Amino acid sequence: MLLEDKKAIREIQSEIQKENLEHTLFSWSKQKGISPKVIDRAKGVYLYTHDGAPILDFSSGLMNVNIGHGDPRVTEAVVRQMEKVSYVTPACATEVRGLLGKKLAEITPGKLNKAFFTVCGATSIENAIKLARLHTGRHKILTRYRSYHGATLGAMSAGGDPRRMKVDAHQAANFVHLEIPYAYRSHGPDWIEESFDHLERLIAYEGPQTIAAILMEGESGTSGCLKLPPGYWKKLREVCDRHGILLISDEVMSGFGRTGSWFGVENHGVVPDMIAMAKGITSGYIPFGALMVSDDIASRFDEEPMMLGLTYSAHPVACAAALEVIHIYESDHLIENARAMGTYMEARMEELKAIHPSIGDFRNTGLLGCLELVKNRDTKQPMAPFNASPSESEVMNQVRARIAELGMYTFSKWSYIFIAPPLCITKSQIDEGLDHLSEALKIADAACENES
Fold first, then answer.
1. Residues 56 and 124 in one domain
2. For residues 162, 163, 166 and 167, what is the CA-based torsion angle, rounded to 10 degrees?
3. Contacts of 311 (CB under 8 A, 6+ apart)
């Protein structure tokens, strides 16, 4: 590339970045002093800047681009639908709406046969909460600390992510949180039984007759891929059945092959009463979500109005994208590949553990994984604490910067580095990503204390 061309490209990227910063707001960030990467195009597992430099996307965007970037089959499906009808009111029936609903009923477990279409994960969760309260006549929702269910008021109140603290005075009422430890930081040999006991006590204290639903992530995501104690999902199902409480699985992140199964909850052998979904349903190509509802819940509204609605519910273009993306999961055997590549990732991570003392733990299901970095493996002191301040994040910020320098993007927070690449990834691309990661981890290794 000629020097003049490089200069022109830099000027284009600078102007794009300038317009973005001057006229748009960036999520979860201070607005001054940031320098967002300017992306020109994306294909497969790579993003590209205007000069053609590749960036390996090692977390599928925000764990949503499951089929990989730039698949023309989705573009073609969207164009075909837009040539027919781009929008109709949700009161209308369309062919693609019915086909998608039928397909979702086929791939979800049990008798989850009715879909209410939403526009994102948060609106799927909001409507799951509303529907649980409508169906049971109860008002409380039990959820987990160290979880994330979305950024709308109800969804954020349901979650346990500390970002909600900024709007703490305005949280929605009637959300009760469970503390569930995870194996790496469990306390004592009886932590599993104590987790079950805590669940039973909390339900007794709150009054089971007041609890409409228990809401859990099918598999933990941005809270650190924290594993539930073995058998916990089955315990939840038993408790819910005993007390007439609904069980809701949040599969916004863990759904659509991400964990090596269609939905994360299937790894636990449990059928919930509702499944909230988004992200992978369209692989992020178009904003869209859905709430799958059991026949029992749906039948309540055969003769009674269901007082839920969204202007863009069952948007035909989004439905077309979702239907094609599901076809791609099946035709390209992406769920099988997620399982196989997850196994390969875990084996490679064991090799990295032997090299890097900063790796405290690696938790993974399919291709939903997270590294937890520590200063000392004996004490398990985290490289950055929970909800770390900027001054506590110096080392992790350096690690993140080095990952970016090496030409890779992956989601990271506190002491966590997430590894959740598109499900189409190959062994050689995993090796490429882990080589970048291994180089960046030298910074964290240098910050480690001497182990006893």
1. no
2. -100
3. 90
Instruction: Round the average pLDDT of the chain to a whole number and report it.
Output: 95
State the DSSP string of 212-271: EEEEEESS--TTT-PPPPTTHHHHHHHHHHHHT-EEEEE-TTTTTTTTSSSSGGGGGT--
Amino acid at 303: E
Is-contact 235 166, C-beta < 8 A?
no
Last residue of a domain, one of 316, 331, 346: 331
Query: For the whole model, what pTM was predicted?
Result: 0.95
Cβ contact 140:176 at 8 Å: yes
**Amino acid letter, residue 233:** W
Whole-number Å distance between alpha carbons of 149 and 127: 12
Residue 330 makes CB contacts below 8 A (sequence gap 6+) with: none
Band of pLDDT at residue 452, cut at 50, 70 and 90 = very low
Which range of residues forms the domain containing residue 61? 39-67+333-446
3-class SS at 448?
coil
Q: How far apart are CA 236 and CA 180, in angstroms?
A: 13
